[in-house]
Amino acid sequence: MRSVEGTGKTIDDAIRSGLVHLGLIQDEVDIEILEEPKSGFLGFGSKLARVRLTEKASVNVQTTVCDEMEDVSTIAEEPLEEKSVKEHLFTQEEAATKAKQFVYSILKNMGVSVMIEKMIKSDKIILSLHGQNLGFLIGKHGQTLDALQYLTNLTTNQGQTERHFIMLDIENYRSKREDTLRKLAFRLAKKVRLEKEKIVLEPMNGYERKIIHLALQHEMNVRTDSEGQEPYRHVVIHYEL
Fold this sequence. Notes:
GMP Synthetase, Chain A, domain 3, 9 strands, 3-stranded mixed β-sheet, single chain, alpha+beta
């Protein structure tokens, strides 16, 4: 049985965060409250709520995903008719619609009201989520959002020969995160040049590591490498003459 810890400002937010990681709904997990949230004083000493979610023994993960994919009757767009892969290519428009339906159904089962805006680009499909109090879906450094994005890509491209990358975003979090990472990269590169010693960054996913590498690829006297194994793979900024 799978188990995961979720955190959030409230117990409900922590539970929702864990559900996204597991790709399940609340009826399919056992919930253990590990720590109640604390507000602290003037922002100091505050603590997030922490819960442990354990998948119930009777839950079949594959069946759950399929059931959630079928529950899309309330979406304005009509569900796609099943077509043989041999008959046509899996288009970006079809992938975008299928991904949108999947995300909507997952969040609907979690009791989250959301509007989903889709944008199709040459190299990816972007689904932007809009709504109130969606911060718990982002998680620390986007970890919860990345987990939901992974499930969306896995489900959307399942059984298809033509695969499309779907990026999920919430209130422009991705662009803000990219800007933060670029500023961090330039600041640390300057420090490496001054101290002539390498700096090891915290573990990041492949997309965020790529942002660091691209930001510093033309910087003088520094070199970047990715080291370690997932999920602890990280960027190292080296000094070189």
